[in-house]
Design brief:
By secondary structure, the protein is of the alpha+beta class. It has six helices and 22 strands. The strands form four sheets. Strands 11, 14, 15, 16, 17, 18, 19, 20, 21 and 22 form a ten-stranded antiparallel beta sheet that branches. The protein has a five-stranded antiparallel beta sheet with strand order 1-2-3-4-5, covered by helices on one side. Strands 6-7-8-9-10 form a five-stranded antiparallel beta sheet, sandwiched between helices.
Length: 418
């Protein structure tokens, strides 16, 4: 009994002590103006540890070089010949072009920590990508392809020193220069007639991959202004044809039967004349040709469709080519450094096809092209001859073309006023 009484007294005492402690705490920290209770500082977290792969990998990239095949390119990335051959075969089965690789195309090989290739990525173009990975004792290839994003943009510029420089100042590629020159090559000789102050403008398709500019598509419309004259060209595919051809706003073809010049960019050093002092033989002799100065090796283009009648050495003319064309015309290209591959008498050539390269063979003081045109056996001035125009837009679709041309030229003029 006494034992039970003592336990009750102890319990009551402990309860009173707890209540007293609670009352003291309330008085100290909950009354108005009381200080905040003291707490232990929070533990400092350990420094973050960056995760590391359990099995580290390494990526090695190479670019395809001229003359490469996929096996040799993969070998430069460290892949053994047998594996490179197997991967190449699988890529070919998935549609990769194996015969002619594009220089600059990217190859990436991923290696594991054992120095074994575990993935190969190949991008032959900005639009197509291949990925190869080991599977079932061999290699499995997947192919992905994206559609180009095509934007139509306006470009303009003014010639200060050269057309090339003007295009670069406009922030564009020299590729555009060649395109514009080709459109007007039958009506304007850019080698002789380009002047300071000339202006150009065009609507061109630009192709993008994932927001990055890749290359140009078609030129929809263009104008070139020189010496108070404005040339206009509008692209159009005639009904039932896939070929894109250029016409003036009335529907007349800009592709004449002859080019104004067989070289894309150069300068005239001697014109067509019946009396000229000869620089080597001396005396006054007729010069029934146009001389174009150009660096040795510059490509020479056929002035028109035709058949090669002579190709080879021709005395003072050096290495020479003669081409027979329709309507009694023939052209000669003299002092070449060499002929184009497989060019021979009897071969058919098309307008703008490369037939040889500028040189200084025969009686020549330096690299240049001696270009001659004859009609019915008589030499004529290539710069003054009026050649046969190309086929115009058919009457049945001319009204539709004229509306199409007006809309494009209005858009061009609004976007890039001269």
């Amino acid at each position: 009994m006494n034992h039970m009484r003592r336990r009750s007294v102890v319990a009551v005492a402990l309860s009173l002590a707890s209540l007293g402690s609670l009352a003291l705490t309330t008085h100290l920290y909950l009354r108005p103006g009381a200080p905040a209770p003291w707490l232990l500082a929070a533990p400092v977290p350990p420094p973050a540890i960056e995760p590391r792969p359990a099995f580290p990998t390494r990526i090695r990239g190479v670019e395809v070089k001229p003359g490469d095949n996929l096996v040799s390119a993969l070998a430069r990335a460290g892949v053994d010949t047998r594996t490179a051959g197997e991967i190449t075969a699988r890529l070919g089965q998935k549609g990769a072009e194996l015969r002619k690789l594009r220089p600059g195309a990217a190859l990436e090989v991923t290696w594991n920590f054992r120095r074994v290739p575990i993935e190969v990525r190949y991008a032959p173009s900005p639009w197509i990508r291949f990925a190869a990975a080991p599977a079932n004792g061999g290699w499995e290839v997947t192919r992905s392809q994206i559609e180009p994003e095509v934007r139509v943009e306006a470009v303009q510029g003014r010639v200060r020193r050269s057309l090339f420089e003007a295009v670069e100042e406009a922030g564009e590629s020299p590729q555009l220069v060649f395109a514009v020159v080709e459109i007007f090559s039958s009506d304007f000789d850019f080698t002789a007639d380009t002047r300071q102050g000339d202006q150009f403008r065009l609507l061109v398709e630009k192709r993008y991959a994932r927001g990055v500019f890749v290359d140009y598509g078609r030129i929809l419309a263009t104008q070139y202004a020189s010496g108070g004259r404005t040339l206009s060209g509008v692209g159009y595919a005639r009904r039932g044809e896939a070929r894109w051809t250029y016409y003036d706003p009335s529907g007349h073809s800009l592709r004449k039967s002859f080019l104004k010049s067989p070289l894309e960019f150069t300068r005239i050093t001697s014109g067509f004349m019946y009396a000229r002092p000869h620089p080597i033989l001396g005396g006054v002799r007729p010069h029934l040709a146009i001389d174009y100065a150009a660096p040795a090796g510059t490509p020479v283009r056929a002035g028109a469709d035709g058949v090669v009648t002579e190709a080879g050495w021709d005395g003072g003319n050096g290495i020479s080519v003669t081409i027979r064309h329709r309507s009694g015309y023939a052209t000669m290209y003299n002092h070449l450094s060499k002929l184009a591959a497989e060019l021979r008498p009897g071969a058919r050539v098309s307008q703008r096809q490369v037939i040889g390269f500028v040189g200084a063979t025969g009686l020549a003081t330096g690299p240049h092209l001696d270009y001659r045109v004859s009609k019915n056996g008589q030499f004529v001035n290539p710069l003054g001859e009026r050649f046969i125009p190309g086929e115009p837009i058919a009457a049945a679709e001319r009204a539709a073309f004229v509306d199409h041309a007006r809309a494009l030229l209005r858009r061009l003029e609004d976007a890039t006023p001269f």
